Amino acid sequence: MGFHAKGVIEQRILNDKPTVRLGFLLQKSGVAFYKGLAQALSNAAATFTRARVQVVIGYLDDLDPATVAQRLLALGDQVDGVGMVAVDHPRVRDAVASLQVAGVPVVALISELAGLGSASYVGVDNRLMGRTAGWFVTRLAGSPGSAAVMVSSQRFQCQELCEMSFRSYLSSHSTDWELLASRLTLEDDDFAYGNALDLLSGEPELSALYVALG
């Protein structure tokens, strides 16, 4: 309608919105999944209408728990809330507890942290994920045989739950399944490729290979 004060009103509405600064601590920067997750988080913040959301993204190329805890505490000093993908370790849990005491809420993304009932979790049901993978394997494999699991690290609760529930499902389905020792990927393409080749050459009769995240 050409109302001359339209711009002033829009600016006032924008200025009246609270500003929220959110920090996200993700895993290795070279992994495509985490690059995509970072972009999705930034896009969601940009389109959120109830507040002006500023996003700080950090990556953990060093997965040592002490380093993760230090990075987490440092990020918590800069933001109003933290979302993170991290290993389940006492030092990490202590850092989360310290942030919560300081009034900084923490949300675990993808992988839960044990013993932190007040920390929220956003992710899938990893027990169901592992059992679903087992269900598919029992129907796709011609007959029971040897089965292996690949994980990036068993310190991630999500991967541990996926692995345990996968093994549990196969064991309960048939005693003829031979469950091999797990192999690591360390979230490194070359390392995972080499480990997979080693597994396939050492187990020519392998019936199933489950990559439990990572």
TrEMBL record:
Coiled-coil parts of chain: none
Domain Periplasmic binding protein, residue spans: 23-210
Pfam families xrefs: Peripla_BP_4
One cellular component term from this protein's GO annotations in UniProt: outer membrane-bounded periplasmic space
Superkingdom, natural source: Bacteria
Subcellular compartments: Periplasm
One GO MF term: carbohydrate binding
Gene3D superfamilies hit by this protein: 3.40.50.2300
PANTHER family in alphabetical order: ABC TRANSPORTER PERIPLASMIC-BINDING PROTEIN YPHF, D-XYLOSE-BINDING PERIPLASMIC PROTEIN
Protein's UniProt name: Transcriptional regulator, LacI family
Species the sequence originates in: Pseudomonas syringae pv. spinaceae
